[in-house]
Amino acid sequence: MIRLSHDLIRGISRGLGRYDNELQRKTGYSLKEIAYHGACFKKELCTSEYKLSAAIVPISSGEGIIEGFSEAVHSIIDYIGFPAFVTDKSDIAGIAQAIEKEADVLFLADDNCFIALNLKYRYVVYNSEATARGYVAALDYLAEGLEKKEVLVIGAGNVGNAAAEALKSMGADIAIFDIDQSKTALIANKLGARIENNLDEALSHHTFILDASPADNIIRVEHIKPETRIAECGIPTGLMDEAFSLVEKHLVHDPLQIGVATMMMLCCHV
Ligand code: 2YJ
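Above: inputs. Below: predicted complex with N~5~-D-lysyl-L-ornithine.
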Protein backbone atom coordinates (compact mmCIF):
# COMPACT_ATOMS: atom_id res chain seq x y z
CA MET A 1 0.00 0.00 0.00
CA ILE A 2 1.31 3.42 -0.97
CA ARG A 3 1.61 5.95 1.85
CA LEU A 4 0.14 9.27 0.77
CA SER A 5 2.58 12.18 0.73
CA HIS A 6 2.23 15.92 1.19
CA ASP A 7 2.97 16.39 -2.53
CA LEU A 8 0.16 14.03 -3.56
CA ILE A 9 -2.49 15.79 -1.49
CA ARG A 10 -1.29 19.38 -1.75
CA GLY A 11 -3.95 21.55 -3.35
CA ILE A 12 -6.90 19.17 -2.74
CA SER A 13 -8.78 21.71 -0.58
CA ARG A 14 -8.34 24.60 -3.02
CA GLY A 15 -9.08 22.45 -6.05
CA LEU A 16 -12.31 20.76 -4.90
CA GLY A 17 -14.64 22.98 -6.94
CA ARG A 18 -12.55 22.47 -10.07
CA TYR A 19 -12.32 18.72 -9.45
CA ASP A 20 -16.07 18.49 -8.94
CA ASN A 21 -16.69 20.31 -12.26
CA GLU A 22 -14.30 17.89 -13.95
CA LEU A 23 -16.17 14.89 -12.51
CA GLN A 24 -19.48 16.35 -13.67
CA ARG A 25 -18.12 16.94 -17.15
CA LYS A 26 -16.81 13.38 -17.40
CA THR A 27 -19.51 11.36 -15.64
CA GLY A 28 -22.52 13.69 -15.54
CA TYR A 29 -22.48 13.52 -11.74
CA SER A 30 -20.89 15.42 -8.84
CA LEU A 31 -18.48 14.09 -6.21
CA LYS A 32 -21.34 13.89 -3.72
CA GLU A 33 -23.59 12.02 -6.16
CA ILE A 34 -20.82 9.56 -7.02
CA ALA A 35 -20.17 8.95 -3.30
CA TYR A 36 -23.87 8.51 -2.68
CA HIS A 37 -24.17 6.02 -5.53
CA GLY A 38 -21.09 4.19 -4.22
CA ALA A 39 -22.50 3.94 -0.71
CA CYS A 40 -25.99 2.99 -1.77
CA PHE A 41 -25.43 -0.35 -3.42
CA LYS A 42 -27.42 -1.45 -0.38
CA LYS A 43 -29.99 1.19 -1.10
CA GLU A 44 -32.32 0.43 1.78
CA LEU A 45 -29.62 1.56 4.18
CA CYS A 46 -28.67 5.04 3.19
CA THR A 47 -29.97 8.52 3.88
CA SER A 48 -27.75 11.46 2.98
CA GLU A 49 -30.14 13.79 4.79
CA TYR A 50 -28.91 12.40 8.06
CA LYS A 51 -26.33 14.98 9.21
CA LEU A 52 -23.60 13.23 11.13
CA SER A 53 -20.65 15.33 12.31
CA ALA A 54 -17.10 14.15 11.70
CA ALA A 55 -13.83 14.68 13.54
CA ILE A 56 -10.51 14.00 11.85
CA VAL A 57 -7.81 12.96 14.33
CA PRO A 58 -4.17 13.27 13.18
CA ILE A 59 -2.21 10.09 14.00
CA SER A 60 1.53 10.31 14.64
CA SER A 61 2.43 6.59 14.81
CA GLY A 62 4.74 4.95 12.25
CA GLU A 63 6.07 7.49 9.78
CA GLY A 64 4.10 10.26 11.47
CA ILE A 65 1.63 12.96 10.59
CA ILE A 66 1.45 13.88 6.90
CA GLU A 67 1.34 17.64 6.54
CA GLY A 68 -2.05 18.59 5.10
CA PHE A 69 -3.61 15.10 5.28
CA SER A 70 -6.20 15.79 8.02
CA GLU A 71 -7.00 19.19 6.45
CA ALA A 72 -7.56 17.57 3.03
CA VAL A 73 -9.89 14.94 4.56
CA HIS A 74 -11.70 17.74 6.42
CA SER A 75 -12.15 19.82 3.27
CA ILE A 76 -13.65 16.88 1.33
CA ILE A 77 -16.18 16.07 4.07
CA ASP A 78 -17.04 19.75 4.41
CA TYR A 79 -17.40 20.09 0.62
CA ILE A 80 -20.06 17.37 0.43
CA GLY A 81 -22.01 19.11 3.17
CA PHE A 82 -21.22 17.52 6.52
CA PRO A 83 -20.06 19.41 9.61
CA ALA A 84 -16.46 18.44 10.36
CA PHE A 85 -13.38 19.54 12.28
CA VAL A 86 -9.75 18.51 12.76
CA THR A 87 -8.87 17.94 16.42
CA ASP A 88 -6.16 20.25 17.82
CA LYS A 89 -4.48 17.31 19.48
CA SER A 90 -3.29 14.11 17.82
CA ASP A 91 -3.61 10.45 18.78
CA ILE A 92 -5.27 9.45 22.09
CA ALA A 93 -5.80 13.05 23.24
CA GLY A 94 -7.33 13.84 19.84
CA ILE A 95 -9.76 10.92 20.14
CA ALA A 96 -10.77 12.16 23.61
CA GLN A 97 -11.27 15.68 22.23
CA ALA A 98 -13.41 14.39 19.33
CA ILE A 99 -15.67 12.51 21.72
CA GLU A 100 -15.89 15.43 24.17
CA LYS A 101 -17.00 17.61 21.24
CA GLU A 102 -19.66 14.99 20.39
CA ALA A 103 -18.43 13.97 16.96
CA ASP A 104 -20.54 11.16 15.48
CA VAL A 105 -17.79 9.85 13.21
CA LEU A 106 -13.99 9.70 13.69
CA PHE A 107 -11.61 9.63 10.71
CA LEU A 108 -8.23 8.09 11.58
CA ALA A 109 -5.33 6.88 9.42
CA ASP A 110 -1.99 5.31 10.20
CA ASP A 111 0.49 3.95 7.64
CA ASN A 112 -1.50 0.77 7.00
CA CYS A 113 -5.10 1.53 7.60
CA PHE A 114 -7.51 4.42 7.06
CA ILE A 115 -10.91 4.13 8.72
CA ALA A 116 -14.01 6.04 9.72
CA LEU A 117 -15.56 4.93 13.01
CA ASN A 118 -19.27 5.53 13.26
CA LEU A 119 -19.63 6.03 17.01
CA LYS A 120 -23.37 6.52 16.86
CA TYR A 121 -24.10 3.08 15.39
CA ARG A 122 -20.77 1.42 16.26
CA TYR A 123 -19.41 0.27 12.92
CA VAL A 124 -16.23 0.72 10.91
CA VAL A 125 -15.89 1.95 7.34
CA TYR A 126 -12.61 1.10 5.59
CA ASN A 127 -11.10 3.49 3.08
CA SER A 128 -10.21 0.54 0.82
CA GLU A 129 -13.86 -0.58 0.57
CA ALA A 130 -15.16 2.98 0.19
CA THR A 131 -12.59 3.73 -2.52
CA ALA A 132 -13.61 0.59 -4.41
CA ARG A 133 -17.32 1.40 -4.18
CA GLY A 134 -16.82 5.05 -5.14
CA TYR A 135 -14.76 4.17 -8.20
CA VAL A 136 -17.20 1.46 -9.28
CA ALA A 137 -19.96 4.08 -9.02
CA ALA A 138 -17.89 6.50 -11.13
CA LEU A 139 -17.21 3.77 -13.71
CA ASP A 140 -20.92 2.95 -13.81
CA TYR A 141 -21.61 6.59 -14.72
CA LEU A 142 -18.69 6.79 -17.18
CA ALA A 143 -19.95 3.63 -18.90
CA GLU A 144 -23.62 4.66 -18.77
CA GLY A 145 -24.43 1.51 -16.83
CA LEU A 146 -22.39 -1.63 -16.17
CA GLU A 147 -25.06 -4.29 -16.06
CA LYS A 148 -24.00 -7.32 -18.17
CA LYS A 149 -20.85 -5.47 -19.27
CA GLU A 150 -17.48 -7.04 -18.56
CA VAL A 151 -15.09 -5.01 -16.41
CA LEU A 152 -11.40 -5.81 -16.14
CA VAL A 153 -10.24 -5.41 -12.52
CA ILE A 154 -6.47 -5.05 -12.23
CA GLY A 155 -5.17 -5.95 -8.76
CA ALA A 156 -6.74 -8.35 -6.29
CA GLY A 157 -5.77 -6.61 -3.05
CA ASN A 158 -8.25 -5.02 -0.63
CA VAL A 159 -9.50 -2.43 -3.13
CA GLY A 160 -9.65 -4.90 -6.05
CA ASN A 161 -11.57 -7.43 -3.95
CA ALA A 162 -14.09 -4.87 -2.75
CA ALA A 163 -14.44 -3.50 -6.29
CA ALA A 164 -15.19 -6.99 -7.62
CA GLU A 165 -17.90 -7.42 -4.96
CA ALA A 166 -19.42 -4.04 -5.84
CA LEU A 167 -19.31 -4.79 -9.57
CA LYS A 168 -21.02 -8.12 -8.97
CA SER A 169 -23.80 -6.43 -7.01
CA MET A 170 -24.32 -4.08 -9.96
CA GLY A 171 -24.74 -7.00 -12.35
CA ALA A 172 -21.41 -6.55 -14.17
CA ASP A 173 -19.31 -9.47 -15.41
CA ILE A 174 -15.82 -9.47 -13.94
CA ALA A 175 -12.44 -10.36 -15.38
CA ILE A 176 -9.60 -10.18 -12.88
CA PHE A 177 -5.82 -9.92 -13.22
CA ASP A 178 -3.16 -9.94 -10.52
CA ILE A 179 0.50 -10.90 -10.76
CA ASP A 180 -0.20 -13.17 -7.76
CA GLN A 181 -2.48 -15.83 -9.25
CA SER A 182 -3.47 -17.29 -5.87
CA LYS A 183 -5.33 -14.02 -5.18
CA THR A 184 -7.35 -14.12 -8.40
CA ALA A 185 -8.42 -17.72 -7.77
CA LEU A 186 -10.21 -16.63 -4.58
CA ILE A 187 -12.20 -13.94 -6.41
CA ALA A 188 -12.96 -16.30 -9.29
CA ASN A 189 -14.38 -18.92 -6.91
CA LYS A 190 -16.37 -16.48 -4.84
CA LEU A 191 -17.77 -14.21 -7.55
CA GLY A 192 -17.53 -16.27 -10.71
CA ALA A 193 -14.95 -13.86 -12.13
CA ARG A 194 -12.94 -14.84 -15.19
CA ILE A 195 -9.20 -14.99 -14.54
CA GLU A 196 -6.90 -13.17 -16.96
CA ASN A 197 -3.30 -14.39 -16.96
CA ASN A 198 -1.85 -12.02 -19.56
CA LEU A 199 -2.38 -8.35 -18.68
CA ASP A 200 -1.38 -7.04 -22.10
CA GLU A 201 -3.95 -9.25 -23.86
CA ALA A 202 -6.59 -8.50 -21.23
CA LEU A 203 -6.11 -4.74 -21.69
CA SER A 204 -6.30 -5.11 -25.45
CA HIS A 205 -9.74 -6.72 -25.41
CA HIS A 206 -11.39 -4.80 -22.56
CA THR A 207 -13.20 -1.48 -22.74
CA PHE A 208 -14.11 -0.98 -19.07
CA ILE A 209 -11.18 -1.04 -16.68
CA LEU A 210 -10.91 -0.63 -12.94
CA ASP A 211 -7.24 -0.34 -12.00
CA ALA A 212 -6.68 -1.06 -8.31
CA SER A 213 -3.01 -1.95 -8.58
CA PRO A 214 -0.02 0.16 -7.53
CA ALA A 215 1.91 -0.75 -10.70
CA ASP A 216 2.81 2.16 -12.99
CA ASN A 217 3.17 2.25 -16.79
CA ILE A 218 1.04 -0.85 -17.44
CA ILE A 219 -1.64 0.80 -19.62
CA ARG A 220 -0.25 1.97 -22.94
CA VAL A 221 -1.59 3.97 -25.90
CA GLU A 222 -2.37 0.81 -27.91
CA HIS A 223 -4.75 -0.34 -25.13
CA ILE A 224 -6.94 2.76 -25.45
CA LYS A 225 -9.97 2.58 -27.76
CA PRO A 226 -12.55 5.33 -28.38
CA GLU A 227 -15.00 3.47 -26.07
CA THR A 228 -12.46 2.90 -23.27
CA ARG A 229 -13.58 4.01 -19.79
CA ILE A 230 -11.17 3.80 -16.84
CA ALA A 231 -11.63 4.08 -13.08
CA GLU A 232 -8.05 4.51 -11.93
CA CYS A 233 -7.73 4.17 -8.16
CA GLY A 234 -4.13 3.02 -8.13
CA ILE A 235 -1.45 5.34 -6.80
CA PRO A 236 0.60 5.99 -8.86
CA THR A 237 -1.70 5.64 -11.88
CA GLY A 238 -1.12 2.63 -14.12
CA LEU A 239 -1.25 4.75 -17.27
CA MET A 240 1.75 5.83 -19.30
CA ASP A 241 1.69 9.60 -19.93
CA GLU A 242 0.53 9.40 -23.57
CA ALA A 243 -2.21 6.90 -22.69
CA PHE A 244 -3.35 9.17 -19.85
CA SER A 245 -3.71 12.13 -22.21
CA LEU A 246 -5.56 10.01 -24.77
CA VAL A 247 -8.21 8.72 -22.34
CA GLU A 248 -8.30 11.68 -19.93
CA LYS A 249 -11.89 12.69 -20.83
CA HIS A 250 -13.11 9.19 -19.98
CA LEU A 251 -10.97 8.55 -16.91
CA VAL A 252 -11.55 9.16 -13.21
CA HIS A 253 -8.52 9.39 -10.91
CA ASP A 254 -7.68 11.20 -7.66
CA PRO A 255 -5.59 10.53 -4.53
CA LEU A 256 -8.29 10.93 -1.86
CA GLN A 257 -11.51 12.70 -2.87
CA ILE A 258 -13.79 9.86 -4.06
CA GLY A 259 -12.63 7.50 -1.30
CA VAL A 260 -13.17 9.97 1.55
CA ALA A 261 -16.51 11.23 0.21
CA THR A 262 -17.73 7.63 -0.09
CA MET A 263 -16.47 6.82 3.45
CA MET A 264 -18.62 9.66 4.78
CA MET A 265 -21.65 8.48 2.83
CA LEU A 266 -21.12 4.91 4.07
CA CYS A 267 -21.26 6.35 7.59
CA CYS A 268 -24.83 7.46 6.86
CA HIS A 269 -26.18 3.93 6.87
CA VAL A 270 -28.69 3.78 9.69
O1 2YJ B 1 -2.71 11.33 10.43
C1 2YJ B 1 -1.82 11.45 9.57
O2 2YJ B 1 -1.47 12.56 9.10
C2 2YJ B 1 -1.14 10.20 9.04
N1 2YJ B 1 -1.04 9.20 10.06
C3 2YJ B 1 -1.90 9.76 7.81
C4 2YJ B 1 -1.45 8.46 7.20
C5 2YJ B 1 -2.16 8.21 5.89
N2 2YJ B 1 -2.18 6.81 5.58
C6 2YJ B 1 -1.82 6.32 4.40
O3 2YJ B 1 -1.43 6.99 3.48
C7 2YJ B 1 -1.98 4.85 4.29
N3 2YJ B 1 -1.15 4.28 3.26
C8 2YJ B 1 -3.44 4.48 4.06
C9 2YJ B 1 -4.08 5.31 2.96
C10 2YJ B 1 -5.16 4.61 2.26
C11 2YJ B 1 -5.59 5.46 1.05
N4 2YJ B 1 -6.27 4.65 0.10
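The two ends are 31 Å apart (CA to CA).
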